[in-house]
């Protein structure tokens, strides 16, 4: 299993989700306290062993002379907990699946001894220790870059490795899209965004026609019979907060920000969705307004009708989803947002801010949903829930130099 997938599975967010389902009375998640406790212990270890920001707080803070004693006590209690884990009557650390327990214990002892020596040495002691800087993630990412340069051969010989290393040295950004771990030091977007003229012309040519309008009317009839499950609404509320956060980086209008951030905690229609976000919130999640939740829910219904049920895509699928959601909302309300929440635009002929916000919400959500649907489709339909042939034969052929 890849390290980044293990870190995502054994995270506090997963523990919060299990507790949320348990508190809601879900039968499958009852008596899951031990699982939640195990996940939180491993997540705490990941935070301490991957501290990378000098000004972070809590368990993500760097090791220094003021918190090294508390971290030592955490390591000792976690070590005792890992030693008590059993498979049947046999402790895990002496069984065939002992490597993760032994690895964590060795890492904790090594980091602690190294921190003591670096923080309390006589000459030039360090003020703090960032444990992520001494992890093997950097080596893993470098190997991933080397493998990606080799084309179909991900096990280069000496001369090939020499040429690959020369290419990487003359490359400004060494980036990798897939690897065993995540690159936390990855830089942001490029200063200049390059787009091909052919791509721009395709986006202009994909205009709606009368057939699309007829299809939208058929979709609207199916949309009325489409209902979202309880947990789907919870997930959409979480995604809505992410959409609002990404939009706030681009907005300069304070009224638009207030409409997106508007929180109706005492509103009966918005209470259920906000409850899930609050249960997993640690201070940085955003509760989207009721209007954003309404738009995202209608977009999900339209996506289910147009894409999931038909299991096919065409050139105007994005336009059909947006128009289907827009008309569905207009049938229930004449305004996308609450009336009187935004002043009228001064520029005559310019589109209203409400409609511009609606278009931006649709664009971000469809992009997120399409990427997720693409991964699910490739896994179920193309790969048939099996690993790829290359992944299966990589260690059999390449690692045996055949």
TrEMBL record:
InterPro entries this protein is in? TNP-like_GBD, TNP-like_RNaseH_C
The name this protein goes by in its record: THAP domain-containing protein 9
Tell me which residues make up the Transposable element P transposase-like RNase H C-terminal domain: 132-163
Q: Where is the Transposable element P transposase-like GTP-binding insertion domain?
A: 1-62
Enumerate the Pfam families for this protein. TNP-like_GBD, TNP-like_RNaseH_C
């Amino acid at each position: 299993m890849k390290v980044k997938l293990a870190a995502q599975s054994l995270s506090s967010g997963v523990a919060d989700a299990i507790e949320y389902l348990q508190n809601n009375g879900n039968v499958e998640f009852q008596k899951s306290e031990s699982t939640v406790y195990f996940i939180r212990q491993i997540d705490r270890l990941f935070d301490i062993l991957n501290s990378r920001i000098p000004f972070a707080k809590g368990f993500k803070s760097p090791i220094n002379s003021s918190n090294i004693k508390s971290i030592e006590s955490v390591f000792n209690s976690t070590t005792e907990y890992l030693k008590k884990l059993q498979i049947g009557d046999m402790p895990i650390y002496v069984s065939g699946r002992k490597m993760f327990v032994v690895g964590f214990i060795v890492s904790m002892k090594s980091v602690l001894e190294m921190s003591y020596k670096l923080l309390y040495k006589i000459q030039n002691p360090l003020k703090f220790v960032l444990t992520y800087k001494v992890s093997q993630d950097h080596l893993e990412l470098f190997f991933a870059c080397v493998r990606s340069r080799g084309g179909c051969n991900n096990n280069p010989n000496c001369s090939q490795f020499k040429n690959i290393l020369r290419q990487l040295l003359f490359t400004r950004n060494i980036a990798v899209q897939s690897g065993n771990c995540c690159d936390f030091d990855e830089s942001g977007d490029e200063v200049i965004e390059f787009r091909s003229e052919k791509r721009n012309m395709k986006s202009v040519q994909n205009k709606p026609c009368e057939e699309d309008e007829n299809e939208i009317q058929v979709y609207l009839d199916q949309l009325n019979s489409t209902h979202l499950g309880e947990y789907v609404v919870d997930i959409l509320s979480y995604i809505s907060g992410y959409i609002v956060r990404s939009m706030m980086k681009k907005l300069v209008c304070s009224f638009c920000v207030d409409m997106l951030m508007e929180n109706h905690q005492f509103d009966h229609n918005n209470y259920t969705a906000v409850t899930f976000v609050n249960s997993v919130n640690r201070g940085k999640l955003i509760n989207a307004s009721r209007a954003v939740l309404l738009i995202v829910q209608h977009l999900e219904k339209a996506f289910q009708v147009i894409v999931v049920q038909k299991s096919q895509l065409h050139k105007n699928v994005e336009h059909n989803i947006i128009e289907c959601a827009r008309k569905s909302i207009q049938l229930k309300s004449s305004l996308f947002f609450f009336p009187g929440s935004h002043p009228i635009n001064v520029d005559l002929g310019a589109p209203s801010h409400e409609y511009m916000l609606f278009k931006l919400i649709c664009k971000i959500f469809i992009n997120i949903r399409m990427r997720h649907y693409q991964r699910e489709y490739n896994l179920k339909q193309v790969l048939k829930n099996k690993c790829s042939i290359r992944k299966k034969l990589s260690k059999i052929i390449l690692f045996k130099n055949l």
